Amino acid sequence: MPPVPLNFVQCDDMTMNAETVPLTSSSMEVDTQTTSTSAPDSNIETTTHTNTSVSSDGVTTTVITTTIVMTPRRAPHKPPTMASSGLVKAATPPPSLITDANRKGNLIGEKRNPPHTFLTPSRRVRPLQRSPSQLLRLRRASPSKSPPCASTAPMRLLSCVYQKYAWGKKGAASSAGNMVTAASRAHQSIGLAESFELPADVPVAEMWMGTHPSGMSKVLDGEYGVIGLKEYVQSDPATHLGSDDGETNDITFLFKVLSIGQVLSIQAHPDKHLAVRLHAARPSLYKDPNHKPEMAIALTDDTSALMGFRPMPEIYEHMLEYKEFAKAVGSRAVAMCASLASKSAGYGAAVGGMELDRQVDESRSFSALSEMFRTFVGQERNEFVISQVHALTSRLRKSWEENTLDRENELVKLILYLATIYPDDPCVLSPLFFNYVQLKRGQALYIRTNEPHAYISGELLECMATSDNVVRVGLTPKVKDTDTLLDMLTYRAGRPRLTFGERVDHCTTLYRPPVEDFCVETLEVMAGDSYDVEAVPSPSILLCYDGKGILKQTFGTSGETKELSVSFGMSVFISANTTLEILAEGEAISIARAMSNVYG
């Protein structure tokens, strides 16, 4: 006979299970009873299973299993509030399956039916949770999916804004520009908008998808005409956002495509408290009172950036190797870094998410890096620092011309590149103390608030909290706010963490940062296949960044069906709790989906 079934439950950090009592071959089952009771209007049910057996030697064994099951009455999810085309293809790295046994919260793909939990009065009850690897195994075991349920609102085509920043690529070299142009042609072909062509000499740095007033997307639809996306979601926030808080009623994320022609400024983004103060004091420069954590996902293999302070031993090593750098930061900073370099060969536990590995002695590291960076970019010694920058770059350039330098030295090449654009900027030497990060296609980098960084090259997707607040200090002709940036930085040293995301199933990769404002899925559907996009309690923006296909949706109580043909550069807004199907009929299609971080 089979063993008596186990009761397996999970409560908080404690796992409890009833021991299996098998019926052996020498025993005989004589009586089995099962009773279930539940109180009226209660969500608690008790089931008692009694199994009596008699062994060959006359011993009677009775096994009684009692299961108490509660179906939680959950309140509706409320999202966080706050105020091929033109893409240069590169080889896709092999999928990386990343698991995190310590991460809490529901993961993508998990059904949101009320789960069974064990009722224990003294402990907080939480549902069973699955890791990404468990989720992937379940999807592989059950590839067929039930038809999507009816959605609450139809999907809407978006017309998006582009930004002509000087650092952007020009003409056909810009993926952002190619997407804007391709989308306008597609909109014209279905009679929704006029087509336009971007001049070849105009730098197209970014394409924005969202509700920020500096680049508001517009909804294209015959029913509404052309209206701003924020006006559209606020017309019915309960439907489009999943809740109505009566205040902000806005999307929590801003989605972008970046095409980087030359290095961006050395910058940082404020946290919420600082953003409120900056916006109140200088609203013309700091456009909103929101924080701006962000995440970049590389679309090409040539994507690179400067991110966070290097580990202390590397900074001190560069001070010894490049005497001009040591003179520029001053003897006090050199001494402080030297005292820490010998003690920080190892690193402490990771901070979490895709962030920096934190050094052991944080207070002393903070003091040393603050002294070094303030001396380096402050105004007191500006002329002397620039003279050392000139001396070092001249020496490196001469050695390069005389072929006495290693021409594969990425650090030297980067310094000389920066010197050709901003020869009189101290931050030309920033690669000596900031991490130089090179990303492959599909690799992501998360950037916390108050962390220094600068994108250098490449094509990338970028998702962030809905904000345009940037505090700059160098490598830019724009307004610099040096004092604010020096005061806001965390001065943490360590190596940035990169990730290829969490491979959820054969089509979906999830990138989720440690903030609630946003996360991103990339969906790759092969030619001839289809894929059901599951509903989430957050609005979403979908961007087709390669290929073409059809989005199919059933919505409303009447079961009405809507289809949209989408191709490279086109973007679509879908309301919260909305499903759709992706059909890749003639060729494969690649779609990126941005939304609030409903997975924790």
From TrEMBL:
Coiled coil, from the record: none
MF term (GO), any: zinc ion binding
Record field: catalytic activity: D-mannose 6-phosphate = D-fructose 6-phosphate
Enzyme Commission number, as recorded: 5.3.1.8
Enzyme class: isomerase
Region (Disordered): 24-57, 73-98
Domain of life assignment: Eukaryota
Residue ranges constituting the Phosphomannose isomerase type I catalytic domain according to the UniProt record: 158-311
Pfam hit, one: PMI_typeI_C
PROSITE patterns: PMI_I_1 (PS00965)
Biased composition (Polar residues): 24-49
The protein's annotated pathway: Nucleotide-sugar biosynthesis; GDP-alpha-D-mannose biosynthesis; alpha-D-mannose 1-phosphate from D-fructose 6-phosphate: step 1/2
Domain Phosphomannose isomerase type I C-terminal: from-to ranges: 510-551
Cofactor needs: Zn(2+)
Any one annotated GO CC term: cytosol
Keyword Nucleus attached: no
Gene3D superfamilies cross-referenced by the UniProt entry: Jelly Rolls (2.60.120.10), Phosphomannose Isomerase, domain 2 (1.10.441.10)
CDD domains according to UniProt: cupin_PMI_type_I_N
GO BP terms, alphabetized: carbohydrate metabolic process; GDP-mannose biosynthetic process
Keywords, ordered alphabetically: Isomerase, Metal-binding, Zinc
Family per record: Belongs to the mannose-6-phosphate isomerase type 1 family.
NCBIfam families, sorted: manA
The protein's name in its UniProt record: mannose-6-phosphate isomerase
